[in-house]
Known about the structure:
alpha+beta; four-stranded mixed sheet
Amino acid sequence: MTETTSKYADFEGLRERAVALRREGLSVRQIRDRLKVFNNDMLHRLLQGEPAPEWTKRPRAKDDLRAKARELRLQGMTYDQIQVELGCSKSSISLWARDLPRPAPRTREQASAIAKRGWELTLQRREQERQEVKRSAQSEIGSLSERELFLLGVGLYWAEGTKDKPHARRERVAFVNSDPSMIQIFVAWLALMGVAPERLRFHLMIHESADVPSAERYWADLTGTDVSAFGKTTLKKHNPKTNRKNVGKHYRGCLVIHVQQSADLYRRIEGWWCGIVGGSVSGQGPSLPG
């Protein structure tokens, strides 16, 4: 008889000791080390039928979800409905609730309602994900340094501002946009550049069907000016056949910001932009036009 066989010859005596240790609250590993039983199959035979102590049980992340799925099943919901409500897989739901009675067959109207509800919840989850990504990205920015605002303003102007062309000389600073945040950044950038408020002129471009006085007040408040300081508003003729989306109370047209005596500032903006391009790509940046 080998040593291993003789060790387990008194199986019942060994089982009695193992069960006693289990009931004292020891884990399988602790019992293994205490009894020197390193054969896993034999160890589990010794402990067969003995529940594990509570402290060794790991909480299961899906326990709450499982309980909710069973509750919904008992209310008569199908697996599809439960999946829509809880957002978990149908295979998991089947595993959790397969011992529960099946609900009555659903009607066409019920199936349509389930599909509609599922799409609504999908849109809600997508929107939550979108907003979470935006909030996370926003938190990564923090406060801008003056240099960061300077570079941002130059890029912003070169994307949205009026530019000089060889066939149409426009060496003046004029910025047009309908996005309030873009206007705010550009006004802050002008202040950083030392442009005095009295050098700024504003006027509105908007469709004639809009609430023009309200839009003028909105842009005046945003820029810290008075409506009386605005130039003549440019009205765009309304075409009722056009399926425009920029309508309603949030439509406020485009604000134009002109900087008086700004030829030198414009030239510097163009030079700064060429410097940014040259500093960010290999080789020389674009050459300045004549």
